[in-house]
Amino acid sequence: MKKSSIIILLGPPGSGKGTQANLLAEQFDLYHLETSKIIEQRIMNAKEGDFVEVEGEKYSFEKEKELWKSGVLCSPPFVSYLIKEKIKNLAKEEKGIVFSGSPRTLHEGKEVIPLIKELYGAENIMVLQISLPAEASIFRNSHRRICQLMRHPVLWSEETEGLTLCPLDGSKLLKREGLDDPETIKTRLEEYKERTYPLVDYFKEEKVTINEIKGEQAVEEVFHDILKGVGFEPKSSLEPKK
Ligand SMILES: [Zn+2]
After folding, report:
1. Opening angle at CA 102, ends 140 and 237, nearest 5
2. What number is the average pLDDT over the span 135-153?
Protein backbone atom coordinates (compact mmCIF):
# COMPACT_ATOMS: atom_id res chain seq x y z
CA MET A 1 0.00 0.00 0.00
CA LYS A 2 1.30 3.42 -0.93
CA LYS A 3 1.38 5.53 2.18
CA SER A 4 1.48 9.30 2.34
CA SER A 5 4.75 11.14 2.18
CA ILE A 6 6.84 12.95 4.72
CA ILE A 7 8.76 16.02 3.62
CA ILE A 8 11.21 17.64 6.01
CA LEU A 9 12.44 21.12 5.11
CA LEU A 10 15.63 22.38 6.72
CA GLY A 11 17.00 25.84 6.19
CA PRO A 12 18.51 28.83 7.96
CA PRO A 13 16.40 31.84 8.99
CA GLY A 14 15.35 33.67 5.84
CA SER A 15 15.49 30.59 3.58
CA GLY A 16 11.72 30.75 3.19
CA LYS A 17 11.06 27.20 4.44
CA GLY A 18 7.75 28.21 6.05
CA THR A 19 6.46 29.66 2.78
CA GLN A 20 7.61 26.59 0.85
CA ALA A 21 5.99 24.27 3.40
CA ASN A 22 2.69 26.13 3.00
CA LEU A 23 2.90 25.76 -0.79
CA LEU A 24 3.65 22.03 -0.47
CA ALA A 25 0.86 21.51 2.05
CA GLU A 26 -1.63 23.15 -0.28
CA GLN A 27 -0.40 21.38 -3.41
CA PHE A 28 -0.35 17.87 -1.99
CA ASP A 29 -2.84 18.10 0.87
CA LEU A 30 -0.16 17.60 3.53
CA TYR A 31 -0.36 18.66 7.15
CA HIS A 32 2.12 21.49 7.80
CA LEU A 33 3.66 20.58 11.13
CA GLU A 34 5.24 23.45 13.04
CA THR A 35 6.60 22.61 16.47
CA SER A 36 5.87 26.08 17.85
CA LYS A 37 2.19 25.89 16.84
CA ILE A 38 1.71 22.45 18.36
CA ILE A 39 3.24 23.58 21.64
CA GLU A 40 1.03 26.68 21.64
CA GLN A 41 -2.18 24.78 20.87
CA ARG A 42 -1.60 22.10 23.49
CA ILE A 43 -0.46 24.55 26.17
CA MET A 44 -3.36 26.93 25.62
CA ASN A 45 -5.92 24.10 25.71
CA ALA A 46 -4.48 22.29 28.74
CA LYS A 47 -6.58 22.03 31.89
CA GLU A 48 -5.27 22.66 35.38
CA GLY A 49 -3.19 19.73 36.59
CA ASP A 50 -2.63 18.28 33.10
CA PHE A 51 0.74 16.64 32.57
CA VAL A 52 2.54 14.23 30.29
CA GLU A 53 4.73 11.42 31.55
CA VAL A 54 7.93 10.52 29.71
CA GLU A 55 10.16 7.74 31.06
CA GLY A 56 8.81 8.10 34.58
CA GLU A 57 9.25 11.87 34.60
CA LYS A 58 6.18 14.11 34.84
CA TYR A 59 6.02 17.37 32.86
CA SER A 60 3.20 19.66 33.92
CA PHE A 61 1.57 21.88 31.33
CA GLU A 62 1.54 24.76 33.83
CA LYS A 63 5.33 24.68 34.24
CA GLU A 64 5.92 24.31 30.51
CA LYS A 65 3.55 27.21 29.90
CA GLU A 66 5.68 29.40 32.18
CA LEU A 67 8.84 28.50 30.25
CA TRP A 68 7.07 29.06 26.96
CA LYS A 69 5.71 32.47 28.03
CA SER A 70 9.12 33.67 29.19
CA GLY A 71 10.64 32.78 25.81
CA VAL A 72 12.71 29.86 27.12
CA LEU A 73 12.57 26.60 25.15
CA CYS A 74 10.22 24.02 26.66
CA SER A 75 11.70 20.76 28.03
CA PRO A 76 12.90 18.64 25.08
CA PRO A 77 11.17 15.40 26.28
CA PHE A 78 7.89 17.33 26.67
CA VAL A 79 8.19 18.78 23.15
CA SER A 80 9.10 15.41 21.61
CA TYR A 81 6.11 13.83 23.33
CA LEU A 82 3.69 16.37 21.85
CA ILE A 83 5.19 16.07 18.37
CA LYS A 84 5.10 12.27 18.42
CA GLU A 85 1.51 12.32 19.65
CA LYS A 86 0.57 14.56 16.72
CA ILE A 87 2.44 12.36 14.21
CA LYS A 88 0.66 9.23 15.49
CA ASN A 89 -2.72 10.91 15.08
CA LEU A 90 -1.88 12.04 11.55
CA ALA A 91 -0.61 8.57 10.61
CA LYS A 92 -3.94 7.07 11.74
CA GLU A 93 -5.66 9.34 9.21
CA GLU A 94 -2.97 8.40 6.63
CA LYS A 95 -2.21 12.07 6.27
CA GLY A 96 1.14 13.13 4.81
CA ILE A 97 3.20 15.71 6.67
CA VAL A 98 5.50 18.56 5.72
CA PHE A 99 7.82 19.68 8.53
CA SER A 100 9.36 23.15 8.50
CA GLY A 101 11.89 23.99 11.12
CA SER A 102 11.51 20.71 12.96
CA PRO A 103 12.98 18.43 14.08
CA ARG A 104 15.06 21.28 15.48
CA THR A 105 17.60 19.33 17.45
CA LEU A 106 19.39 15.98 17.33
CA HIS A 107 17.31 14.98 20.36
CA GLU A 108 14.07 15.68 18.49
CA GLY A 109 15.40 13.99 15.35
CA LYS A 110 16.25 10.80 17.21
CA GLU A 111 12.74 10.72 18.64
CA VAL A 112 10.89 11.60 15.47
CA ILE A 113 12.76 9.80 12.66
CA PRO A 114 12.38 6.21 13.98
CA LEU A 115 8.67 6.88 14.54
CA ILE A 116 7.97 8.22 11.04
CA LYS A 117 10.08 5.41 9.53
CA GLU A 118 7.87 2.92 11.33
CA LEU A 119 4.58 4.63 10.49
CA TYR A 120 5.25 5.88 6.96
CA GLY A 121 8.20 3.80 5.71
CA ALA A 122 11.77 5.05 5.18
CA GLU A 123 11.25 5.23 1.41
CA ASN A 124 8.54 7.86 1.89
CA ILE A 125 10.70 10.30 3.85
CA MET A 126 12.34 13.13 1.94
CA VAL A 127 14.63 15.72 3.47
CA LEU A 128 15.28 18.95 1.61
CA GLN A 129 17.97 21.25 2.83
CA ILE A 130 17.48 24.81 1.59
CA SER A 131 20.88 26.46 1.47
CA LEU A 132 21.37 30.19 1.77
CA PRO A 133 24.70 32.02 2.14
CA ALA A 134 25.08 33.84 5.46
CA GLU A 135 25.12 37.28 3.80
CA ALA A 136 21.83 36.54 2.03
CA SER A 137 20.24 35.33 5.26
CA ILE A 138 21.36 38.47 7.08
CA PHE A 139 20.16 40.70 4.26
CA ARG A 140 16.76 39.03 3.96
CA ASN A 141 16.14 38.97 7.70
CA SER A 142 17.28 42.52 8.33
CA HIS A 143 14.93 43.63 5.55
CA ARG A 144 12.02 41.61 6.88
CA ARG A 145 8.92 43.58 7.75
CA ILE A 146 5.71 42.86 9.62
CA CYS A 147 2.28 44.35 9.14
CA GLN A 148 0.83 46.75 11.66
CA LEU A 149 -2.53 45.04 12.08
CA MET A 150 -1.88 41.29 12.31
CA ARG A 151 1.96 41.17 12.48
CA HIS A 152 2.09 39.04 9.31
CA PRO A 153 5.78 38.60 8.43
CA VAL A 154 6.83 39.74 4.96
CA LEU A 155 10.22 38.31 4.05
CA TRP A 156 12.40 40.33 1.72
CA SER A 157 12.42 39.17 -1.89
CA GLU A 158 12.42 40.84 -5.30
CA GLU A 159 8.66 40.32 -5.37
CA THR A 160 8.00 41.92 -1.99
CA GLU A 161 10.61 44.70 -2.15
CA GLY A 162 8.18 47.32 -3.48
CA LEU A 163 5.27 46.44 -1.20
CA THR A 164 4.17 49.08 1.29
CA LEU A 165 0.95 47.39 2.47
CA CYS A 166 0.26 43.89 3.81
CA PRO A 167 -0.97 41.63 0.97
CA LEU A 168 -3.36 39.90 3.39
CA ASP A 169 -5.06 42.77 5.16
CA GLY A 170 -3.81 45.99 3.60
CA SER A 171 -2.29 47.43 6.78
CA LYS A 172 1.07 49.24 6.78
CA LEU A 173 4.32 47.26 6.72
CA LEU A 174 6.81 48.08 9.47
CA LYS A 175 10.31 46.99 10.45
CA ARG A 176 10.63 44.89 13.60
CA GLU A 177 12.88 46.25 16.32
CA GLY A 178 15.55 44.10 17.94
CA LEU A 179 14.79 40.68 16.52
CA ASP A 180 16.00 41.48 13.02
CA ASP A 181 19.23 43.31 13.89
CA PRO A 182 22.21 41.90 11.96
CA GLU A 183 23.91 40.88 15.24
CA THR A 184 20.85 38.95 16.44
CA ILE A 185 20.55 37.26 13.06
CA LYS A 186 24.22 36.22 13.19
CA THR A 187 23.58 34.57 16.55
CA ARG A 188 20.52 32.79 15.16
CA LEU A 189 22.57 31.57 12.19
CA GLU A 190 25.26 30.19 14.48
CA GLU A 191 22.61 28.44 16.54
CA TYR A 192 21.08 27.01 13.39
CA LYS A 193 24.42 25.57 12.25
CA GLU A 194 25.22 24.09 15.64
CA ARG A 195 21.83 22.42 15.84
CA THR A 196 21.47 21.33 12.23
CA TYR A 197 24.85 19.80 11.32
CA PRO A 198 24.54 16.92 13.81
CA LEU A 199 20.97 16.42 12.63
CA VAL A 200 22.07 16.15 8.98
CA ASP A 201 24.75 13.62 9.97
CA TYR A 202 22.10 11.64 11.79
CA PHE A 203 19.81 11.64 8.72
CA LYS A 204 22.73 10.30 6.67
CA GLU A 205 23.41 7.54 9.21
CA GLU A 206 19.75 6.63 9.04
CA LYS A 207 19.98 6.47 5.23
CA VAL A 208 17.38 9.16 4.77
CA THR A 209 17.82 10.90 1.40
CA ILE A 210 18.77 14.57 1.57
CA ASN A 211 18.50 16.90 -1.40
CA GLU A 212 20.04 20.33 -1.41
CA ILE A 213 17.99 23.20 -2.79
CA LYS A 214 19.42 26.61 -3.65
CA GLY A 215 17.50 29.08 -1.54
CA GLU A 216 18.86 32.21 -3.17
CA GLN A 217 16.30 32.10 -5.96
CA ALA A 218 12.79 33.50 -6.26
CA VAL A 219 10.09 31.69 -4.23
CA GLU A 220 8.66 30.17 -7.42
CA GLU A 221 12.03 28.79 -8.54
CA VAL A 222 12.78 27.32 -5.13
CA PHE A 223 9.38 25.62 -5.21
CA HIS A 224 10.09 24.26 -8.69
CA ASP A 225 13.37 22.73 -7.45
CA ILE A 226 11.65 21.30 -4.38
CA LEU A 227 9.05 19.59 -6.56
CA LYS A 228 11.87 18.06 -8.60
CA GLY A 229 13.66 17.10 -5.42
CA VAL A 230 10.68 15.14 -4.15
CA GLY A 231 10.28 13.38 -7.48
CA PHE A 232 7.43 15.29 -9.08
CA GLU A 233 7.71 16.67 -12.58
CA PRO A 234 6.54 20.22 -11.97
CA LYS A 235 5.78 21.39 -15.49
CA SER A 236 4.08 18.35 -16.95
CA SER A 237 2.14 16.63 -14.19
CA LEU A 238 1.80 16.59 -10.45
CA GLU A 239 1.22 12.86 -10.25
CA PRO A 240 3.96 10.99 -8.46
CA LYS A 241 6.45 9.15 -10.70
CA LYS A 242 5.74 5.45 -10.56
ZN1 LIG B 1 -1.17 41.64 7.62
Report:
1. 80
2. 88
